[in-house]
């Protein structure tokens, strides 16, 4: 089940206002967009056995934003006794997916890159924070930073999204 933390700090996007909206209408539009992003995340997570099996949690979502976490287990280690890059990638990719689907428009990954900067170790709690950088037409660009519980940057991921037909919920 998705863990949508009530105590998590609000993502930066939740504090910004869409252009052209003002006053009460603006507050209602932001509340509606936030509620939709949370409902989409809950539905996606419920249908995501891969993220669940890796022990991921959804810590925060907002339009164009997602933060997910995962603890590195012994079965995620490689021959150097550090976290296998595939698991770090999976966490970043999941956060990317939750961020780019947060508008309830079915969106898939079109391409990505990842740079590994520091090793993760057994017991580390990794957090992937995905933020929308650009959204135009059917494509978007999202940056994901993966950090450890002590603030070390583990990896930087950039994903390109493509919207396809349909809605998530």
Mind explaining what this structure looks like?
With 169 residues, the protein is of the alpha+beta class. It has a single domain (21-163), classed as Thiol Ester Dehydrase, Chain A (Roll). Helices cover 27% and strands 33% of the residues. The chain has 3 helices and 6 strands, in the order ααββαββββ. It has helices at 23-46, 49-53, 85-100, and strands spanning 57-62, 65-71, 107-116, 125-136, 139-147, 153-163. The protein has a 6-stranded antiparallel β-sheet with strand order 1-2-4-5-6-3. A hairpin with a 5-residue loop joins strand 5 and strand 6.
Structural features:
elongated, 6-stranded antiparallel beta sheet
Brief rundown of the structure:
This protein is α+β, with helices and mostly antiparallel strands and 169 residues long. Helix content is 27%, strand content 33%.
Overall helicity: 25-40%
Total strands: the figure is 6
- The spatial strand order of the largest sheet comes to 1-2-4-5-6-3
CATH class: Alpha Beta
> Cα-atom Rg, whole angstroms?
16 Å
Uncertain segments are 5-9, 13-18
Task: Enumerate how many helices there are, as a single number.
Answer: 3
| CATH homologous superfamily caption | Hotdog Thioesterase
Measured by DSSP, the beta-strand proportion falls in: 25-35%
CATH architecture descriptor text: Roll
Can you write the helix and strand succession as a string? HHEEHEEEE
Q: What's the N-to-C terminus distance?
A: 16 Å
Mean pLDDT: 91
> Major sheet: size, sense and barrel closure?
6 strands, antiparallel
């Amino acid at each position: 089940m998705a863990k949508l933390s009530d105590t998590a700090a609000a993502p930066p996007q939740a504090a910004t206002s869409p252009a052209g909206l003002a006053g009460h209408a603006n507050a209602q539009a932001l509340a509606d967009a936030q509620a939709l992003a949370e409902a989409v995340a809950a539905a996606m997570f419920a249908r995501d056995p891969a993220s669940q099996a890796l022990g991921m949690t959804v810590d925060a979502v907002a339009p164009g934003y997602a933060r997910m976490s995962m603890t590195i287990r012994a079965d995620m280690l490689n021959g150097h006794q550090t976290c296998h890059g595939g698991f770090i990638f999976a966490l970043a990719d999941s956060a990317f997916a939750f961020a780019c689907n947060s508008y309830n428009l079915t969106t898939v990954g079109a391409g990505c890159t990842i740079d590994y900067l520091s090793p993760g170790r057994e017991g580390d709690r990794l957090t992937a924070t995905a933020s929308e950088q650009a959204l135009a037409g059917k494509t978007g660009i999202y940056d994901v930073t993966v950090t450890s519980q002590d603030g070390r940057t583990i990896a930087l991921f950039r994903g390109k999204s493509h919207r396809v037909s349909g809605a998530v919920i």
